[in-house]
Design brief:
Chain lengths: ~400, ~400, ~400
């Protein structure tokens, strides 16, 4: 555990240890109040996020450390065209651990390739936001006493919701977890996640009724339904109210159910729900501070092995030769009998317009073999599948 | 004293104690250097203000505490539409006390309704800026040795000047205070403040001559005359120089008079005045740091009773029924014989375009009975009178 | 050494002591970890610069002090028209030392006139950036063991490059230093610097070949060649590659040569050079932290004598009478036999559009006699020669 870029970078055992450490910090805050004295956290926020940034900063301060950084790209040298790789190498001279948020997918992964200190991904576009997932797990675990055997009802934008995808994948590592997926038809959970649920043998059901979904839930996870996701305003207005949690709907929910939300909310949870004891989204933000304390502490205690960042293994001058047969597979041909390289470097470009490779200078284009049977490759940074 | 939203939230005794504490901090800074160790101040500045923010931050640092926050809305989640109520609830998980500046009137009051930690209003639009008033009182008290028996000459924009209105009202709680009100005709002190002076039996005079005004003053309080307040540029240019304090005018002032200014100044005090020993506006900024130390310390020592923020008492679903007779009173009819409700909830809206209710989601519209004899109501947040 | 505005404000002995102190800090960081406990650094960045700001902040934190400030003008009161002089006087109440970056030339010098605490110039437009020069000197000294007897190859934009001009002038105070000046014809080193080299008896050569230049160098100092410096894009594209340092060119360089760059780079050093042990630009950023620690520590230990800032000596009402003969000299006439005043106040204006006098209110226009034989004057702030 050198860097934390994706929630799945952590094993179940590592997550268990983080949750236990967070619990111990909550119970004995004084014992941790000076653990990071003399250490510095850099918060590199290339796009603003109050909650995430302040939660990291509060975490470091409560460990006795100090904080420096920037809160938006406009107050950083990114406006001068500096690459993420250079920023991270320089800031590694000034800080002991870096929390980084960036609008491009894969940005934190690029940081991890070049950094001489631990990098925590604090959100890279629509890609990953592991400390949110850890926050969700801690909140659930503290209130349910377990992560196995739970029924999670996920509601809202299940198509584009990064936090929801991460949470589902994180929970799929536990036993007897059931999912109820509540969304309008336009915003259903992507097929590739449903495929993963099927492959793992997890029970799930899809519905467009929040009332129906929450009736059976241990955990209700709300997310926002954004107007811009709909083709026309009429559809949005018609559907919106169905996905607003209010006092009436809470009457239908189990007495022990807990309500989570990654925040910020706009109007998807009515204010009257805030005073319901089952509404835990503000306490969830508090859990976010404690799990970040646990994570910073763990990374700093384990820090080491940064002498030779892995970027040294990627030669920007290297170029994988692509025989005609491999090119055909990349264009969709049957891979049977073709010897596919494990890695393709600087031969094809990532087509994802939000990938960090579209803006980062001097970065090798790298794809790794994702599925030899299907002949699919994934971008090393944003993890999007290669498209011909 | 849980929160400080308006200077009048504090009793005269509480102000006395704050001034005495600030004096003691000035005399014995080392005794206070670790008083807030392990505590955190959040500076939530939804609009920028160098002096106010840095003065709060310096105050907390000199108490041994630490600071987090943001310095403009563009680097906060407010750009994602998060409400003040939610921001304050979340940040209450990360900090022990919040200093908040917001462009909307009543914003800090909304914060106080929802926060689980003390809120200090660091300026809410044209509404209140209590720590500026406390700064003014401390500076005057330290240099005059008293707040009773003083003649204050207030000069400049007395119509829109928030700091001037607050200072007058704060000084009206002391004995034998006289006011000389120097302004162009366009920018005279509002009638409702003159009415308060009359009602309190305070001597005051209005004049358009700064020379005449300062000749009798113990304290000269300068403010800026902004061009945009005038209907045409000619009037502005004609009048402007009369309200610029320069070396010549200082020759007419008493030897013991002190000059204050809330800063920033643009050109209303000529640079040559800066070296006059009576010019105290930079020392005033220093007093601002010490009174904020006293305030933070006092609020943190008293902090408690935040388990159930008062917002819980305002049901956003509640709606006051307004009988026809009450509606008529709201529209200007004689209130005689009408049973007026103490509070009107979600029945009428605040018409002040700068009120926080114009932007804050999920906030109940609340008016409280201001004057039963006149049948007037005030907005709970921005304190503007209800207008039909 | 009250303030550090220009690298030449420091004597060679003062620089020697700073370098020795930085070396000692590097060797014994723990001995310095609490040296500035209770002290505060204000970072006033009127324009953004991640590296410089974070390096100052890390420096102060590693000395046990704390930091406040702003990272761009948009989050400061400069947007309200506050002068640098007022900002610095106010912030002097909140901090013990100020690091200031400003887009206008001479801004830090104006700060130093008014401040009651030490000011460090962290870059004032195209004028000076002394901590960058000190960083360069520390990096060279640590890796070469000396500053005398070195051959420096400077490459790129030598015409507009502020850091290059400062470094040349700083190195001209040492013995047996040779300069190789590599640039396209459009961006050659300005004549006045070549004149200084000639006057000092320094060996130098100009060339447009980086290959040729680096073959003899002890130190290669790279800078960026910006497209906007060229009259047309063709010239830029044609020349650009000649000034990009890559793996091929590094093969021609001496084994002991070191490569420096003030950063951020855009594409003038190819990524493959980063792994070359001679590439020291990231370590240079680390040296930047240590030299700033040495500088902050030294300034705070020596701090004193700020009771009466020198601005008091410049009367904004003063106006130098200019006899016809002096006016003629200002317009280019022969100064022979004319009694020229040492200082001209408020009689003529600085014509440099980037001078702080173009924006700062209430600042006296001051020119000092630069060369009595030639009859030339220099602006006190931006040091540009007066032009009729």
């Amino acid at each position: 555990m050198k860097h934390v870029i994706s929630p799945l970078d952590l094993t179940v055992e590592e997550i268990d240890r983080l949750l236990a450490l967070a619990d111990d910090i909550i119970d004995h805050p004084q014992a941790y109040a000076h653990k990071c004295a003399g250490k510095k956290l850099a918060t590199l926020f290339f796009e603003p996020s109050t909650r995430t940034r302040l939660s990291f900063e509060a975490a470091m301060l409560e460990l006795g450390g100090s904080v420096l950084g920037f809160s938006s790209a406009s107050s950083s040298s990114a406006t001068k065209g500096e690459s993420v790789a250079d920023t991270v190498r320089i800031v590694g001279n000034y800080a002991d651990v870096i929390a980084m948020r960036h609008p491009k997918e894969g940005a934190a992964g690029v940081g991890a390739l070049f950094a001489k200190c631990p990098i925590i991904n604090a959100g890279d576009g629509g890609h990953q936001h592991p400390t949110q997932t850890l926050t969700d797990l801690l909140t659930i675990h503290r209130h349910k006493g377990r992560l196995n055997g739970l029924t999670l009802c996920l509601c809202g934008d299940l198509k584009f919701g990064r936090t929801v995808h991460s949470l589902v994948r994180a929970m799929m590592r536990y036993q007897d977890v059931r999912f109820i997926l509540v969304s309008p038809d336009e915003l259903r959970m992507p097929t590739y996640i449903l495929d993963e649920l099927d492959a793992g043998g997890f029970a799930y059901e899809e519905t467009d009724s929040l009332e129906k979904g929450l009736a059976q839930a241990d955990v209700l996870y709300m997310t926002r339904v954004q107007q811009e996701r709909f083709a026309n305003r009429e559809d949005y207005l018609r559907l919106r109210d169905s996905y607003i949690l209010d006092g009436e709907k809470m009457k239908l929910a189990p007495a022990e159910m807990i309500v989570l939300h990654p925040l910020p909310r706009v109007n998807e949870i009515a204010p009257e729900v805030d005073d319901d004891p089952r509404a835990l989204y503000f306490e969830q933000a508090l859990c976010g501070k404690y799990i970040r304390m646990a994570l910073i502490l763990t990374l700093l205690e384990q820090a080491g092995g940064f002498e030779k960042p892995c970027a040294a293994q990627i030669c920007t001058r290297e170029k994988t030769a692509l025989p005609a047969r491999v090119l055909e597979v990349l264009q969709g041909a049957d891979p049977a009998g073709v010897q596919l390289p494990e890695r393709i470097v600087n031969a094809v470009c990532c087509k994802n317009p939000h990938c960090i490779t579209t803006t980062e200078q001097g970065l090798a284009q790298v794809f790794t073999l994702a599925d030899a049977d299907k002949g699919t490759y994934r971008c090393l940074y944003c993890e999007h599948e290669y498209q011909a």
